[in-house]
Amino acid sequence: MKKAYILLRKSGTLLCFIIFGLGSLAISMTVIPFLWLLFWNVAKRKLVFTRIVRLSWCFFRKIMETLWLIKIQVSQKDILTLKSAASTIIVANHTSLIDIIILVSLTNDATCIVKGRLFQNPLIRFILANAFIGNDQDPIELIDHAVAALMSGYNLIIFPEGTRGNGEVKLRRGAAYIAMESLSDVLVLRIDADPPHLRKGRGWRDAGEKRVVYNIRVKAILKPQIILNTEKSRNINARMITKRIKEAFDETS
Fold first, then answer.
1. Within 13 A of 178's CA, how many CA atoms are on the CB side?
2. Residue stretches of the chain with pLDDT short of 70
3. What's the pLDDT score for residue 163?
C-alpha cells in the first residue's frame, strides 16, 4: 500500500512537471506574441504579462494542492501583508524548486531575480525574459534593474542564499545593496517545507512519502532608512542590513 501511494505521488509530481512545461510553452507561443501586438508600451506590456504569469501560477499551485502533493499554510494576517505589499523587497529562504511559483502566486505584481542559466531553458526562457531579472549581468546593472522595478511599483522577490539550501540559511548581500539604493521596505519570509521536497539536485522523483506542507511566515518588515548609518561605509551598511535579515530568519517565534 505504501509503495503504491509513493508511486502515485511520483506520478502526480511528474504530471505537474509536464503541465508546467507545456503550459509555459503555450504561454510563450501564444500570450507573449499577442501582448506584443496589443501593447506597444513596454511597461504596460510587462505589467499585464506579470499578472498573467501570476494567475497561471495560481492555477498551477491549485493543481498541486488538488492532487494532494502540497499544502500551503499561511496565516490570514500574512496573506494580507503579502497582498498589500507594493515596491517591497521580499526576501525568502530557498527550500525547494517551487518556492518561486508559490510566492509569485501569493504576491501581487511580483518580479524575481533568478539564475541566469535558467534563461537558456527553452520552455521558460521567454517567460523569464519578459517578467524576471537574470542574475548573470554586471552587479551594478543588476542593482539598477532591480531598483527600477521597485520604483515602477513591482515587488521584488529575492532568495539571498542564491540556491536551494538544505537547512541553515546562509545569506549573500545582494538584497542589502538593493535595499540601500531603493530604500524599499524589506519583508522577510521564512519558508519551512515538511518533509523537505524538490531539493537541490533532486527532480520529480523526490516526491516523498506524504503530502508536503509549506509553512510560510512573515518574520519581519525592515526599514533600510532606519538601519543605515551615513557615517559608515557602503559595505558596512550592507553587512548591517544582511545581519538584520539573518536575525529575522533565525527568530524562533
1. 33
2. 1, 162-169, 199-208, 252-253
3. 58
**d(C-alpha 49, C-alpha 35), whole Å:** 8
Q: What number of other Cβ atoms are within 10 A of residue 145's Cβ?
A: 17
| Amino acid at site 128 | L
pTM over 0.85: yes
